[in-house]
Each structure stands twice: as C-alpha cells, then as structure tokens.
Design a protein that fits this description.
single chain, 120 residues, alpha/beta, 6 helices, 6 strands, 42% helix, 22% strand, globular
Length: 120
C-alpha cells in the first residue's frame, strides 16, 4: 500500500510506516512544499497513493469535486507524532485495507475511525 504523507505531518512518518511494509513518501520528497492542496491531491491520485494528512481541507476538496479517489486518512487528534499515534494508524490501515483501495475518506481520532465511501 502506497501512502503519501502531507506536509503538515512529520517526515518521520515515512520511517515509521516503511518498516511496517508500506511504501510511504513525504510530500517534500516529491513536490514543492508550497504546493496547493489540489496539487497534492492530484499527485496522490495519479500515482496511486493514499493521502495521510492532519488537514481537513482534503475532505472538502473530495466533497466539492465528487472525486472517487484518492483515499484520504485524516488524523483528527492532538498528538500526531508517529511515536504517539503509530498504532492507531496501523490499526486503521489494517482494518480498512480493502476500503482504502476502493476510495474512502477516513477521519481518525483516539477513540474511533469514521469512514465515508467516495464519491462523497
């Protein structure tokens, strides 16, 4: 599973996810750090990546455009450092693997994950 880490998350997520069997890349490795969200979203879609973010704008973009991809995972909790939230994310990636491949928006907090099938 390929995961694009948004600029608002630490590049340390790459070092956290890759040893777990994921192909993770931070946006700063593939695009301009000042790129607008639509550009990040378009890159993820055209390259087959799931977008991991702390930004709520990507859900709004999915809703406005009616897009059926890419899948987006929004981390909606306070401490988004990999060492604090790694296991929450790994659980979501495992439980919703099939859905992520089909196109979904998943909002994750400490207690639950809410999933919406694309298009919204």
């Amino acid at each position: 599973m390929k995961i694009l880490i948004d600029m608002n998350l630490s590049p340390d997520w790459v070092k956290t996810l890759n040893p777990e069997g994921f192909n993770a890349v931070h946006w700063s490795e593939v695009g301009a750090i000042t790129a607008p969200d639509r550009e990040v979203m378009a890159w993820a879609k055209s390259n087959g990546y799931i977008l991991l973010t702390h930004d709520l704008d990507f859900g709004a973009i999915l809703a406005v455009t009616g897009a059926n991809s890419p899948s987006v995972i929004q981390l909606r909790f306070q401490d988004i450092a990999p060492e604090k939230s790694k296991y929450i994310l790994l659980d979501v990636l495992s439980r919703f693997r099939n859905e992520l491949e089909s196109g979904v928006l998943i909002s994750v907090d400490e207690d639950r994950a809410r999933i919406r099938v694309l298009p919204l």
